[in-house]
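Bench notes, bay 3.
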Amino acid sequence: MLLKKGLLLCMAVLFLSACSTNLNAAEEKEELRQKLIEVNRTGAIGEIGKAHIDEAVSAASQLELEGKDRDRFVLYHLIYATNDIEMDKEDVYENSQLRLQYEETWKDLAVERYGIQVEEERLQEIIEKDATALKDDVFSPDNPERDTQLYLAEELGYSVDEYVYQFTAPIFEQREIRENLYPLLEEEYGTRADHEVSHQYQMEVIDEIVEAQF
């Protein structure tokens, strides 16, 4: 009898433990999902001052970030700082990494799930053309933000051409993919409303990231 009671108790403990584990996993999934949604709602950079840039680059150096990780961290640090959002550098880094993961998954799903292909030669032509036009605009002597942009490029160690390419190439690539992807998504989702297509694909990407983590 004691053995039977002990066995039942053990089974009850294992069942409760399994339920607790499932509950924790569900909570963690929802927490990650909400973080990704929030990161994608992040606004634009406000008015940048050199002090903002110094602080962002210094924080990136403290975290020993390099390349794409550093650039994206600096971008997000500037977004929060210029919008008076207080956040420590570790949280800024986490959010910038989530955004990078989102962008990579956004592209991967378009390629792997929907068969979208972008010709590298055409993409480079688009980037060269549009980046040149943007560079001429941003770094025009008539642009009041020219000196700030030059300062940011210098602090990141980029020439003007490198700076424009690093921060705009992903945008132009995504735009090119979107032009081919959205007609397929309109059929998939049964709507031609751009905002609805964009939202549904965003959630599809977020769900893909969440499921891959657990």
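Next record in the batch:
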Amino acid sequence: MSAALHLAHVHQPPMKKRRPKRTGGGNGGKFAEIAHRIYQDDRADTQARQLLLATAYAVTMAALDEDTTVWRAICNALGDSIRSWDDLRRIVREDIPRYEPPRWGTDPLYQRCSGPRVRMHPDGPDDFRNRLKICGERTQDKVVEKDPVTGWHTNRWFCTRHRDHLVRVREQVRAQNQAAPPPVPNRGGLMPCYFDSDWVQVYTWAEGWEWEPPSYGYCADDWPVPGRKPVPQRARLRLVVSSQDLEDTQ
């Protein structure tokens, strides 16, 4: 049973075509199969999972006609969280492939100096500063180290007392950073894992200006992630809908 669905052809001539009517309810098995995959996908946060499930429902089970396009069905399935097309754009925009470096508060050692610890911290041997043998003081100065394979960033923080260590580390990683590849995306790209569409056009619509995919592609299944086996190529079920679908949401 195929697990990928086609949302829209958007490069067809801009002539309005009559959409085939679908009464819905006849593809419960397909929806159940895709929903199972979505719930097993640990890359999806709550919002991404809601969008994927709503899209799966819209393209497999929702009743479609001239007034209810696949995108309107997605909005209906998302419920009260969607009050305008701008809300839908915002949610789809969160799926745009991108790399997000370590952010504020996401790293337990965020803004903690990684300089060497000289004396035992009085909070005891189990304190993280003693266990990791680092200074651990708060600071705002850092060195960004880029992984030579993925291009991903690691922040190395230093306090004013360890300024000499910051300078030394910065020089040590300079050549490595210059040679590092563009970072592999680590966010978004989940919609193309489940549905077949012109994603450049869809993401351009969501972004509000012309969008180009990263060199690694727009599908998260295709991104080379260390420690993860390549995702097998999945068969695709094509569902052709009108070229007016995105235009109707303007």
